[in-house]
């Protein structure tokens, strides 16, 4: 028997790519990777909120501390008109006469220091025009009193011509009135015959100097601030006539005081004064009945322009009120404190009340003819800077500038007065600025707590991230 050949057993084929069997392998992973930590959004929100609160608290503290030192804005002073309400009684205290910091107070405070009381004293003899014989053997002396205002640092003053340079007819009339009253006191003329005596002898007499044909002598004096009549010594300042225009061509005069560095007022040649507009007129007045010892003080009054008129070649404004018989030569000012015109007598009125204003343009023309210029001095500029600081609440600057103005121009008593008020207001502000300490302590404590809380939150956040 034949034996068949031996063949090896056939083995099943395995894919070439299959990995070798790993007995430790498992269908799922036994160790899972840990998930990333959740973001601490709440912690970040808390930190951001804490930072905002801290910033707000710090800002509030800074604002509270600095709010008391902020410079106030300058109040606007319009040039339209003053309020229509009347002014209180006479007295040159602008801070008491007007609403605080109003345009009336500010304009009066600016211009009033330049106001001058003028007294012109004339001495001569009343003579018969035909025979030249004196009517009275003794000289006749009479005074004219009015207002004026300083326009240059050299002491030039604008005033009324009829006051300091009256016409020959006016001086005769005044001299005749003086003689008539002497005759009444002597019992040779009845009181009711005074006017007729003047009228009868006006064209028959002349008023001359010590010799026939010579001019009567005259002396002039000016007083700043309050004044007294018949005063020839200090504080009265001697003056002399520089230039004058008669009534028919302006009735304005320029005199020069024998003193410099007096307060100066600005003229507004371009001022537009219209019917119905308001002006503040200022001139000297008195309530005393004894002419020889009368005391005079500056008086302001708010007036309304009622119309325009002409006196010869000169134009003028009519106003509805006045501040008394001695206010001619005073000024009418606008809300900026500049002179819009000079107060003068209304010759068309029976009482010749001081109810016209001569425009500033004519005043400037007279200054040009005399070769002088309306300019402020260093003390005037310091005074205005001081007033500007005063009315805008910058008391420290006001004290400094007003002290400078008062030192350089001692006649400016308002500079001294406003300086004292500024000092008092500054002291009051310093006292009131001593703020209570509890807001600082409270805000500081809150800020400190917030800072500590912020640091703690940041530390916690960093630890959790580790």
Automatic annotation (TrEMBL):
Which Pfam families does the entry link to? Trypsin_2
Parts of the chain that traverse the membrane: 43-65, 437-462
InterPro entries xref list: Peptidase_S1_PA, Peptidase_S1_PA_chymotrypsin
What keywords sit in the KW lines? Membrane, Transmembrane, Transmembrane helix
Q: Where is this region: Disordered?
A: 1-39
Protein name from the UniProt record:
Trypsin-like peptidase domain-containing protein
Q: Which organism is it from?
A: Micromonospora polyrhachis
């Amino acid at each position: 028997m034949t034996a068949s050949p031996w063949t090896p057993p056939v083995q099943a084929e395995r894919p070439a790519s299959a990995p070798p069997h790993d007995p430790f392998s498992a269908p799922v992973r036994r160790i899972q990777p840990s998930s990333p930590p959740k973001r601490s959004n709440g912690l970040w929100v808390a930190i951001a909120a804490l930072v905002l609160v801290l910033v707000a608290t710090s800002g509030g503290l800074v604002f509270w501390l600095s709010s008391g030192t902020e410079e106030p804005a300058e109040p606007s002073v319009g040039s339209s008109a003053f309020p229509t309400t009347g002014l209180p009684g006479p007295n040159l205290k602008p801070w008491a006469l007007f609403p605080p910091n109003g345009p009336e107070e500010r304009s009066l405070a600016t211009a009033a220091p330049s106001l001058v009381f003028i007294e012109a004293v004339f001495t001569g003899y009343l003579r018969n025009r035909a025979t030249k014989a004196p009517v009275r053997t003794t000289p006749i002396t009479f005074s004219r009193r009015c207002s004026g205002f300083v326009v240059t640092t050299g002491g030039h003053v604008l005033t009324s011509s009829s006051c300091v340079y009256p016409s020959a007819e006016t001086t005769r009339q005044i001299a005749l009135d003086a003689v008539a009253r002497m005759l009444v006191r002597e019992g040779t003329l009845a009181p009711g015959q005074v006017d007729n005596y003047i009228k009868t002898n006006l064209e028959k007499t002349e008023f001359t100097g010590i010799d026939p044909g010579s001019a009567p002598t005259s002396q002039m004096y000016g007083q700043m601030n309050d004044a007294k009549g018949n005063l020839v010594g200090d504080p009265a300042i001697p003056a002399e006539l520089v230039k004058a225009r008669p009534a028919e061509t302006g009735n304005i005069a320029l005199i020069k005081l024998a003193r410099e560095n007096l307060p100066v007022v600005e003229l507004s040649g371009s001022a537009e004064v219209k019917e119905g507009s308001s002006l503040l007129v200022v001139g000297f007045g008195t309530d005393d009945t004894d002419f020889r010892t009368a005391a005079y003080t500056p008086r302001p009054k708010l007036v309304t322009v009622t119309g325009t008129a002409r006196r010869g070649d000169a134009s003028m404004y009519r106003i509805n009120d006045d501040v008394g018989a001695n206010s001619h030569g005073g000024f009418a000012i606008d809300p900026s404190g500049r002179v819009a015109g000079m107060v003068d007598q209304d010759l068309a009125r029976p009482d010749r009340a001081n109810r016209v204003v001569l425009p500033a343009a004519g005043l400037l023309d007279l200054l040009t003819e005399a070769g002088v210029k309306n300019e402020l001095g260093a003390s005037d500029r310091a005074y205005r800077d001081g007033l500007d600081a005063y009315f805008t609440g910058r008391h420290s600057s006001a004290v400094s500038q007003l002290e400078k103005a008062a030192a350089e121009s001692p006649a400016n008593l308002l500079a001294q007065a406003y300086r004292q008020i500024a000092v008092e207001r500054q002291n009051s502000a310093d006292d009131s600025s001593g703020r209570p300490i509890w807001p600082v302590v409270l805000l500081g404590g809150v800020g400190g707590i917030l800072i500590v809380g912020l640091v703690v939150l940041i530390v916690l956040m960093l630890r959790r991230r580790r």
